[in-house]
Amino acid sequence: MMRAVLDHLWQSTLFCAAIWSITLALRANAAALRHRLWLVASVKFLVPFSALYFIGAAAGLPPPVETQPLFVDAIEVAAPVVSPASLSPAAGGAVMLAPLLAILWGVGAAWFGMAWLRGWRMTTHLSRAARPAPGASTDVQLTDADVEPSVARVFRPVVLLPAALLGRLTHPQLDAVLAHEREHIARHDNLTAYLHRLVETLFWFHPLVWFIGRQMQQERELACDEAVLADGHDPGEYASGILAVCRHCAGARRRHAVAALAGDLTGRIRHILRSRPPAALGSLQALVLVCCSISVAGIPLVAGAMDGAARRHEALTLNLRVLRDAKIAIQPAVAGSEPRIVAAGNAVTIGNTSVRELIALAYGVRRSQVIGGANWLDSPRYDIHAEAGTAVTDPDDFDPQALQSMVPKLMASHFDLEIHVDQRCQDPCGPRALEMADASP
User: Which residue of 250, 273, 323, 340 is most buried, as measured by CB atoms within 10 A?
Assistant: First the structure.
């Protein structure tokens, strides 16, 4: 467990460093784009690459039908390797340290979680006590609290506007400030801020998590500023409105809600007064971003799928060899029993199956694709028990195609049948299968 956590942390750290370098290259572009990149860096802490790897391994790729004996021989010859690190005294110390680290993490997560809950309850209380602003739309609520203009709530968000500010801002200034807050609502910034707050609570010990939070806050404020200026608001009036809000409630800080005074105020004022539109994202930049995005999720998925396919192919090949010489017992199926395949230890049991279903199951085809024979291929039904000399590999995920090595012998010895696939008799076939059945101990 400790190893998995450490792997996740260093992978997320490298991923964050890559995102940082990309945002530096996109400094002249829109702040909204950089905010989305930082949001991806934040979400990465919640989605380890190992999860994507296991998803790919679970999906995997279909194992090939034909076996590769030489490949299996090479696997059987290979000897297990023990890492020297696992034998060092430090490993025992790490195991003893793990419970203490878990307790420390739990205390820190509870502390930051309680702070988050207190902020959420305060915001809820303010929004419930607020009243509609006269002459404004329903998304603006007046409050008598000494707070700065901000957006409250994630669902059905509203703009909380201090009543004392109504006499301090001119109409253009008030319109620009409200446009900024409405942009937060349109961008769902409270939702993304809460999402990162969850990351901060779970990974409070990681400095980069707090760095990501500051960058997200800065970029979302710049993104809203850019949107306000793009809507045609006067830069001078907008900057004056922010300064008026700052003079009125400079001491108010609400980390639980996005607000007008958040971010680097000096940098924001300079950015507003310059009123320079951001550069458009070029075709090459867009292509690189798309390729990087696909690679981030695609590489772990593909690696997991390839590894899962290789693992299943290895298990299939070994089970084909194990079941080739298995002792087979067949008897009428128990009335009312469910069709099933159970692999455990050295044995594989196939319950309540017909001959046609058994052949279709072993060769991965539909029942209707098994051509020939009479009605007795479908009735009666049988319970088949195969016991091998060694244990079946990966019994919890047993591949029915591993039955291919024993089905031809079973058909020849018990039913006097030959199985042909694409006009070729399956080996062992006919008399040779009967000889193998008689020679088996």
Answer: 323
